[in-house]
Amino acid sequence: MYASLTTESPYTGQVLALTGGVGGAKLARGLAGVLSGAQLTIAANTADDFDYWGLRICPDLDSVMYALADLNDEERGWGLKDESWRTRIAMRRLGGDEWFQIGDQDVATHILRTQLLAKGDSLAAVTEKLCCGLGIPHTLLPMTEGRVATKVITDQGCLEFQEYFVRDKCEPEVRGVLFDGLESAQLHPKLAALLADDTLSAIIICPSNPFVSVDPILALSGCRELLKAAKAPVVAVSPIIAGRAVKGPAAKMMRELAMPATASAVAAYYGDVIDGYVLDDLDASYADEVAAMGLDTCVSQTMMSDVASKTQLAETILDFASRITKKK
Ligand code: GDP
Predict the structure, then answer these.
(1) Helices (H), the chain
(2) Could you tell me the distance, in angstroms and rounded to a whole number, from the CA of residue 146 to the centre of ligand 1?
(3) What pTM, to 2 d.p., does this model score?
(4) 233 C-alpha to center of ligand 1: Å?
(5) What is the domain class of 14-322 according to CATH?
(6) Is the CB–ligand 1 distance for residue 20 below 6 Å?
């Protein structure tokens, strides 16, 4: 799978990527192509997780896992390629819910996860087992073992994240976002330990939705402080290219939350948590504005449409991070 990865990676140290689903999964795949299994840890948002058909669904963990295994459907942006939908059709025939799309192969992931969780395994252990089954050498971690649930406050009331995102197709106007369960959830101990580890050479905030993918991770108690205190530079990649989200509601949400839908507004939103920011070539005109925020700035091609562009962006980010001297 990682045929291009020689045992001698030119990069030294550990790399941590914080991610949501679609955009984050693409960059995670790029990083996995240039970093060894021992070097790369990916921590994914779990605030989108929910129960459906009696099964525990972890959309972002699964998007990353499928991308790392090269089994993801690129066009849809989620789920497995060569998927079929007979279970969903049968569920419709029985009069069951089927607004959340679960494919026939994908359902196996959710069944096994639910079984193992019911047996008492941690979500990290279950994720490790699933990744091992798919031959993934890198570490994929949930942001927490706790139960955090994103609620989207909209003009149509307070919605569960998947109701807003999938059932209502992100159509309601967003007024705010809440994370239920935050008070009792803790940053995954392995993630907290890695953030404090001197061998960490870069922390990458993937091009994921700032409000519903990255914020739940940053909102966990102690996360912002650990990021600021980390020896390694924190580099974020813009999920906005030329005023638009590549996929999903990020730009729409920014406008609804009274922010300009620009790459520089995302940098300002992350504020002093980040040391460096990667903007797309199409947003080069914002580079000075981002630099004026005190951030190291890198302008690059950030559209990831195939393995080569994912790998290229990963290399650019790692080179950029290696040149940043942490100021704080
Ligand atoms: P979700 O949890 O499934 O919504 O996934 P993410 O939050 O990780 O990904 C959604 C974000 O990824 C959107 O804001 C997209 O604009 C961004 N995104 C998707 N593909 C790309 C890409 O190729 N390049 C960049 N820069 N951003 C991308």
Answers:
(1) 22-34, 59-68, 86-93, 106-118, 123-133, 161-162, 189-195, 215-218, 223-229, 250-256, 263-270, 287-291, 307-322
(2) 25
(3) 0.96
(4) 22
(5) alpha beta
(6) yes
